[in-house]
Amino acid sequence: MGNANKIPVVSKEVLLPFIIITSLFALWGFANDITNPMVAAFGTVMEISTAKAALVQLAFYGGYATMAIPAALFVRKYSYKSGILLGLALYAVGALLFFPAAQFEIFAFFLVSLYILTFGLAFLETTANPYILSMGDAKTATRRLNLAQAFNPIGSLFGMFVASKFILVALDSDKRNEAGEIIFSTLDEAQKAIIRTHDLAIIRNPYVILGFVVIAMFVLISLTKMPKRSKDITYSSPSSSFKRLFKNGKYKEGVLAQLFYVAAQIMCWTFIIQYAGNLGIAKAEAQNYNIVAMSIFLLSRFISTFLMKYINSRKLLMIFALCAMTTISGVILIEGQLGLYLLVATSAFMSLMFPTIYGIALNGLSEEDSALGAAGLVMAIVGGALMPILQGALIDMEHIGPFSGVNFSFILPFICFCVIAIYGYRTLKVYK
After folding, report:
1. CATH number of the domain at 2-226+237-429, please?
2. pLDDT tens, position by position, 21-31
């Protein structure tokens, strides 16, 4: 243990590339968390159900599912740097497509734009995660990834901040009367059309600006010298890699755990607005609770990275999952403000899950299997696409037995945290 502490997490030779690649983690965090509140925004302005509005998440995470394996095969054939540049190009195109989507005012056009944008994110995540793992000693790889991943919530916080201070607060469709009811649904079609045009332009602008930021990042990385992977690797066929991965129990269960983790994260953050709305809190104010949740998440990620020096990461994963199950139980059972506080507190325990599951699942894989292994873990992000639609359907039911639909819907994240706790336990006891 003492020896591992002496090995630098990031050596001086790769410090600049490490910083640049780490900044990408913030860039996709921003896209993730400016998009979550759009489910509620599109729901109102396009006058669609919560379940249909959650198609935003299907388009967003469906892009990951479609492109993760092609991205891994591309990186195997070319290089980490090429994978990142192609990812940034796709990201920029998807973001800039928001401009024509707002002109045409078609919900499906926005979904297509998000879908293409996340082709880019799939390339970035499939490439950047194993690239960071490879930038130094294998003993410090999980800590290095946790450090890089700590910058993801910084981007997320900024995305949430932009969503609450520049988008949600400026939406005319979310104006309420004294009773706290939304006025938009009571207006005539001509008034609705004016508001819709205004609101879709408000939603469009941050994405278009983001497109230009991503183009600047593309230029910076294309001009920077990046570390190359070791030359002496001769790759076998992708199918033999897939076979080895399929036989690896720790990896397979890791993909499953990751799928459930991403689903839990998306549900806890997307529907915090509906949970608060059930208590009569407006969208822009509810988004402030999301910002607090993300701040707790960020702080906890730095704390958990520090704790990993002293506590086995697998044990820490199990403990954090059990704590998350406890807070989510309160979210389901307690009506009112305390339930909302417990939902916010859950973020403290989610903080270490993604990079830790990722590091544990890829630990011990050869470099040639790591690229496709990473793709499987990124494809697991599609868990974030499917479960929110199910949760949206539960919320639309309004009442389920003695519970409100919103409260009961959090049974889904509870199940997800159970799966993660079991994975933590099994990696400790079965896959030592």
Report:
1. 1.20.1250.20
2. 999 999 988 98
